[in-house]
Amino acid sequence: MTTAVKPDLARKVHDLPHQPGVYLMRDRLHRVIYVGKARDLRKRVGSYFLPSRLGRADIKTRALLESVWDFECHTVRTEPEALLLEGRLIKEFRPRYNISFRDDKRFLLVKADMADEWPRFRLTRFKKDDQARYFGPFPSAGALRQTLAFMRKRFGVMTFGRGVPSERELKSSTYQVPMKLADITAVQYRERVDAACEFLAGRSREALDTLEQEMRKAAGELNFERAAQLRDMVGNLRQTTKPMRRFTRHSLPSAVDPAADLRALRDALGLKDAPAMMECFDISNISTTHIVASMVAFKEGVPDRSNYRRYRVKTVEGQNDFASMAEVIRRRYSRILLEARERNPDAAEYSQEPPGEALERLAAGEREIVALDENGGEAPRGFAPVRLPDLVIVDGGKGQLSAACRELQRLGLHGLPIIGLAKEFEEIYRPATPMPLRLPEDSGALRLLQRIRDEAHRVANGYHQLLMKKRIAESILDDCRGVSQTRKQALLRRFGSVDRLRKATVEEVAAVEGIGPRLAEGILEFLRDRRAAD
After folding, report:
1. Candidates 3.20.20.110, 3.40.190.10, 3.30.420.340, 3.40.1190.10; correct CATH number of 258-370+379-446?
2. What pTM value is reported for the model?
3. Contact of 478 with 527, CB cutoff 8 Å
């Protein structure tokens, strides 16, 4: 066994550029233990390896320096970009010596909901899949708020709040560009919004040029205080409206080799092939109000988000992980069986087989059941292939695994590879094997399993939180006079959410069975009052 040779860190530092960027410190096992940003990579990273640094470092820094085996750096264009990338990498790798950004705090975004009659620019930390326009993220909250204040006066657009303009906003001189809101229509206001969007997206320099001219004029008139204020404002606007790269998971430096991890997992589990397609299930039953589950898919070792699924557990009462897992496994794979039968109603070759056995053959290795046509090419033999995963993973130990296995057997999927991953000791449970498998902490196979398990956990918890927020929003109707539980359910069935109900007209609400015009007016007035109070 060869001993790993420690890289020459001094030489690596000498090769670093004097540019902004992000650096990752790694330990002997190649794990990321610290992520930092720098305005000048060579100066910042080089400061870690000065002979005097270790002697005057605090306990935490000394432990970090003693653990560093290697480092890598990634250059960016600006210091704000370095801050954004640093935050993303810390969330990605969760290094042991980092404190900042580990609480999942996100940078601010600006949201303009273009579906509203009078769109407003509001701050948010989450980007949703809706019709709104989003700008950011922005590293400096202070500069962003100064920019929004400038936009109010420059473009006459509303920031913060919700809904149509209030009486105070209609008369306010803040939004007088050149006319007050009370003197323009919603269509004219939307033109202001479009101009403000162009500015915030960094595609309009007219406002910045005007401010710079005012700054130079104030300086020429020796009004240095005003010039300094304008200088700071221009700096904030430049920082906010400068086009910024968005670092997505696919563009981040990778700490893993998916292909190598898949091969390691194949060897660890004794599989015939590396599991190119994997599906992992997790149950979230933080409360008995909403018991939900997630199914995440990994393809070639990376997330395949288009094939994620979320479930609301329907047949289980109380917190019963085993029964919940059984229900979700049954629903997932019985649906695949049904789709296979619907796609192949005349498949004579499989017509006499019990449900699932044709799919089991696919799972056992016949990924595409084909024959040779007269020209020697592959041709279907009456069966449209159905893709089952190469490996099923359930979050949990023996109980969850046994429940899942029983459902697969009932469906005829006896040969589908499946394991359970118990979180406490990261033990891998396999069918018909009494003792769990424990892999080394630095094993690529274990890291891959942890990634897919953690992703399933994130999706399940996110879905649970979404349903809880929706339930809290729906509970507002409980306080509305004249709205019984029956009427509440009818309203929610018709509009889907309180948010959509709030945007409906009196006529649309009155059309719901059991409501009527008078009650509809009362409901919408109640919702408007509650929103204003919030």
Report:
1. 3.30.420.340
2. 0.45
3. no
Contact 340, 362 (CB under 8 A): no
The pLDDT value given to residue 166: 82
pLDDT per residue over 26-60, tens digit each?
Answer: 888 788 889 998 888 988 998 888 877 766 777 77
Of the options 1.10.490.10, 1.10.1040.10, 1.10.3210.10, 1.10.150.20, the CATH number for the domain spanning 480-533: 1.10.150.20
Looking at 194-258, which runs of residues are DSSP E strands?
Answer: none
Q: Summarize pLDDT for 164-182 with one digit per residue, the tens.
A: 888 888 877 777 677 888 8
Q: What is the CATH number of domain 9-93?
A: 3.40.1440.10
The bridge status of strand 277-284 relative to strand 391-395 is: parallel
Q: How far is C-alpha 436 from the chain's CA centre?
A: 32
Does residue 100 come out as left (phi exceeding 0), alpha (psi in the -120 to 50 range) or beta? beta
CA of 127: how far to CAs of 106, 133, 250, 447, in Å?
Answer: 10, 9, 18, 28
Angle of CA points 452, 315, 295, to nearest 5° = 15
Span 227-276, pLDDT tens digits: 776 676 666 666 655 555 555 444 444 445 788 899 999 999 999 999 99
Residue carrying structure tokens 């040029």: 209
- Long-range contacts, stretch 113-118, CB < 8 angstroms, 24+ apart: 114/193, 116/163, 117/164, 117/186, 118/158, 118/163, 118/164, 118/165, 118/186, 118/189
Secondary-structure breakdown of the chain: helix, strand, coil percentages, each rounded to the nearest 5: 50, 15, 35
Greater confidence (392 vs 123) lies with 392
